[in-house]
Amino acid sequence: MNKNYKEIFFDQGYISNIKILDKAYANNIYSEYLNFYYKNKNKRCDLVEHKSKTHLYFPWANKIIFDQKILDVVTQIIGNDVLCWNSLIFHKKANSKSWVSMHQDQHYWGIEENKAITVSMALSSSTVENGCLKILPESHKIKFKHEDLNDSNNLLARGQSIGYKKDKIERNFVNIISEPGECVFFHSNMVHGSFQNNTNKDRVLYAMRFVTPENKINKRLYYNYATLIHGNNSENNFVLEPTLEKSSMPYLKKLHKEIIITQFAKYLRLKVKFSIIVSFFMFFFKYDFFRSIFYSIIKRT
Prior knowledge:
Elements: H1 5-12, E1 14-19, H2 23-39, H3 44-49, H4 59-64, H5 68-78, E2 82-92, E3 100-103, H6 106-109, E4 116-122, E5 133-135, E6 146-148, E7 160-162, H7 166-169, E8 174-176, E9 182-187, E10 192-194, E11 203-211, E12 225-230, E13 239-240, H8 249-271, H9 275-285, H10 288-297
Parallel strand pairs: 12-13
Antiparallel strand pairs: 1-9, 2-11, 2-12, 3-10, 4-9, 4-11, 5-8, 5-10, 6-7
């Protein structure tokens, strides 16, 4: 890869349609994922919680964050010291109302400017009809005001959204139409989101968040665990996750659950003023059964 990705990236805020996986391999992951989601007898909490920190849940997801083709682009843009702070599944069922509000990640993460990048990989065909990723070119140069939307169909936990006049901005959004295995790399301050899936086939996207060691995640809002992908964790701002190569999938899944429960408590503290109430709820929420009931109540799957 000898193209000047860095110049293009910081100019327009994104680079699209870079082929990372063979289409057949991406299709196999897609089929494996749908089998997990629909055919395995999973607890409700597992059907919700695997979608965050996904690289600690599935072997294929852990393998992808180390992909050399991804790393070649990421290191050219943000440097040689790289950590994977998060990875997520965005799953829109066939003919579902699920959507993602337009937002800027950097507004919430509390990271350093130009020191983080999202790699969004299509695991199924991504089209306008099935709710492909939408981005606003050059919006990484602007700081928008945000609000939290109360909509159970929004795939974002808090429903974070920029405030904007639709007639002035929506016509400028670019649809990222992708084949399975293709990626878009975009700036952490890029305005992005997606609409609902109006087709008869599920749409699945795997997003990875890569950061540099000098970043300091807002620990009031988010966890600061990360997997070292390349180089060194020189600043020690992140608690390093073990790699699958030096650990095991059962151990990573155990760590995954611990991190998710901790994150659950952080969200709860944002909503509830009294710490004693948070402590009361967290006593129960450490059990899968109670978290599953909660997800059922708020209609999360």
